[in-house]
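Hey, sorry to bother you again with one of my protein questions. I've been puzzling over a protein and I'd love to understand its fold better. Take your time with it, there's no hurry, and the full record follows here:
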Amino acid sequence: MDISSYKIAVYTCITQGYDSLKIPLSVDKRLAYFCFTDTPDSVMSPWEYRPIDLKGLSPKDQNRYIKMHPHEFLPDYDVTVYVDGNIQIVGDLYVLIHTALDSPEGIFTYKHMLRSCVFAEAAACAHYSHDWLWTIASQMRRYSMEGYPVDNGLFEANVIIRKNTVNICRLMDTWWCEYRSGAKRDQLSLPYVAWRLGIPLGALGKSDPRFVHHYFRLVDHPTRRSLKLIIRKHINRFIASLVSYEKLFGLTVPLLWK
């Protein structure tokens, strides 16, 4: 596919200094680079500063809203590449984008490094206290009652290539609504929403930011363990010791998640 006529934007979002902005080691003049942040002084070339004006949302939800709505914040671009704030661009993204756009899907992201099942990931999220177990379990019970299949794929969603199409805009709007109504772990809801809407997700393969580093390199988030997270971890694990994740999620098959 000839993408030379496409307008392509690369963007990231950092709120409240949770990550430090990473300067790309490889910059392509055919791409535009945008950083949405509440700390404009942190933005350096080639990134272009974009303010965040999303009152009523927490810093984390501000990040997720911008992550899920490139069609709202970058409407003039045919293709967008979202990159988490803890990922540095180290290779030629134009090559990666060209490869992705040769496939028929409208959205592409890397496979999860450990699991291929939303329900298994949900068990891990509860175990590691990413959200309250009852919130996660309620969401998973709803998925299982609707017939969402076990082992239906899982993605990291820390790098997302998207075409600006009607279907992908609909997918992103629905993803946001699902994220807001359930656990604050967006990788749990993306495969479900895609399945529900009948929109295929394109896989970029094994996690390049974690393992290969052709295009990206992952830099660990700073460790922040609050008392609330410690309490949540113990409560979640205590409940799971009494009732299995399979039963909590309404499943009849065993989960392999650790």
